[in-house]
Amino acid sequence: MINKRALVTAVAASTLAMTGFAQAEVKVGFLGGFTGGIESLTPPIFEGAQLAVEQINEQGGILDGQTLVMPSGDTTCSDASAASNAADRMVNSENVTAIVGALCTGATIAAANNAAIPGGVLMVSPASTAPAVSELDDNDLVFRTVPSDAFQGEILAKLLLEKGIDAVAVTYVNNDYGQGLSDAFSAAFEAGGGEITENLAHEDNRADYRSELGSLSVSGVDTLVVLAYADTSGQTVLRQAYESGMFTQYVGADGMVGDSLIEAIGADVLDGMIATRPGSPDLPGTDIFIEAAEAADLDPSAVFAAQAYDAAFLIALAIEQNGSAEREGLSEALRSVSSAPGEVILPGEWEQAVELIAAGTEINYEGASGSHEFDENGDVPGVVVEMAVEDGTFTSKGQVDL
């Protein structure tokens, strides 16, 4: 007969061991558009965040040696229900301490309003650029490591005017991202003396945009500005614009900067296409990240990869500063570890940061994509770079200043 007392003791020990194992992990979720409009852009963004996680674990882990893990969820980019469900799983099933993401603005807003804010979960997006993010009633829980499109729109307008392009037609995907970017671009372009001959919203994920293109081309202007996504509407609009012969110059922004766009339409067709995207300033952390990313077989120039690395590293620093995996107090800790004054911590310097925090020394993270001095809305100043399609790929032409 089995000794019941021994069995109870064994079960209790097993339960304790399992509980200890569970407690040995700290979870930070990742929400991204693994399918949908930016599905080709999302993997390197996720890899950027995972690089930070790997470095932290290699240097002793978090909170006295616990392992940092990163479960992921798919928002599809365009489906608010999918974003809300993925966030709900992170907040209430995975019980994450914080979230890197989401990426598309609509997904970030849906995830924040329906799950993260009610659950008191900090979110740091590396890619949600629409001005609408700044307007969230978020209890100081939603931050981003990428500048607002209020800035990128100005830069894109300035860039085109400097190139002598003073008349354009604009079409934008009909969501927070497209609308916000179009508004910022249009205001700056017209203020600088440019003319927008037509400005039309279009719905994502449609097979035919020829009607919109007909309206956009009536004036005979040569330049078409497409503010959309490389893997869905942006790609279809450009293909059909080329097939119709309506435009000779194409322009886009960060959502269009992916080599999948070139592969789908053709390098000869898009040769000379102009675009902008958030970039990284000339700071020590930038070069450190580039070296680490290349060693990990990650393209350091991938759109939003550096911003995702910084989002993950900053969240981890905030958790360490907060002293536990609890959600309460994390936004205050994030502001503390990201702001001057403090001992400067660069990308990869996790072990040093842990020692300083343990000693009660203030730290100031200077990251791969910027210094990340968050304002009252959780926004950061940033850098925008010019991109151009050359030799079959998007090539950086350097930083553009106002």
TrEMBL record:
The answer, when asked if Lipid metabolism is one of the entry's keywords, is: no
Q: Enumerate the spans annotated as Leucine-binding protein domain.
A: 25-338
Gene3D superfamilies hit by this protein = 3.40.50.2300
Please name the InterPro entries in this protein's record: BCAA_transport (IPR051010), Leu-bd (IPR028081), Leu_Ile_Val-bd (IPR000709), Peripla_BP_I (IPR028082)
Q: Please give one Pfam family short name.
A: Peripla_BP_6
Q: Give the record's GO biological process terms.
A: amino acid transport
Position of the signal peptide: 1-24
Concerning SUPFAM superfamilies, the annotation shows:
Periplasmic binding protein-like I
* Record's keyword terms, sorted: Amino-acid transport, Signal, Transport
Q: Which family does it belong to?
A: Belongs to the leucine-binding protein family.
Name the chain's protein.
Amino acid ABC transporter substrate-binding protein
